């Protein structure tokens, strides 16, 4: 599903919204989620899952093209953990 598909589904479900209004709502939601995750805040959507960040330590890596070892700096990466009901729904097919 693409962002455009999601906007279309919102329009179908909430027929009183125009496509432009649905697009603003979806973009606002994504912007807010991005801001909160970037600020290292955890977001939990009950029944769906939680979004957050994890820290990765500095490490030694290898350039696959040259074989040279390089230092990889520490960083934070976003992650998603599915909620119990989502996992069960996916498992049921």
Automatic annotation (TrEMBL):
InterPro entries referenced in this protein's UniProt entry, alphabetically: Hist_DNA-bd (IPR000119), Histone-like_DNA-bd_CS (IPR020816), IHF-like_DNA-bd_dom_sf (IPR010992)
Cellular component, GO annotation: cytosol
Family annotation (Pfam families): Bac_DNA_binding (PF00216)
GO MF terms held by the record: DNA binding; structural constituent of chromatin
Segments for region (Disordered): 54-74
Transcription as UniProt keyword: no
Keywords of this entry: DNA-binding
CDD domains, alphabetized: IHF_B
Secretion signal span: none
Keyword Ribonucleoprotein assigned: no
Family label: Belongs to the bacterial histone-like protein family.
Protein name: Integration host factor subunit beta
Native source species: Thiohalorhabdus denitrificans
């Amino acid at each position: 599903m693409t962002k455009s598909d999601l906007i279309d589904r919102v329009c179908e479900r909430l027929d009183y919204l125009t496509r432009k209004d649905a697009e603003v709502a979806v973009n606002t939601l994504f912007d807010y989620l991005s801001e909160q995750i970037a600020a290292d805040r955890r977001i939990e959507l009950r029944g769906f899952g939680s979004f957050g960040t994890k820290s990765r330590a500095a490490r030694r890596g290898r350039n696959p093209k040259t074989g040279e070892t390089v230092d990889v700096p520490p960083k934070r990466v976003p992650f998603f953990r599915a909620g119990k009901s989502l996992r069960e729904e996916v498992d049921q097919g």
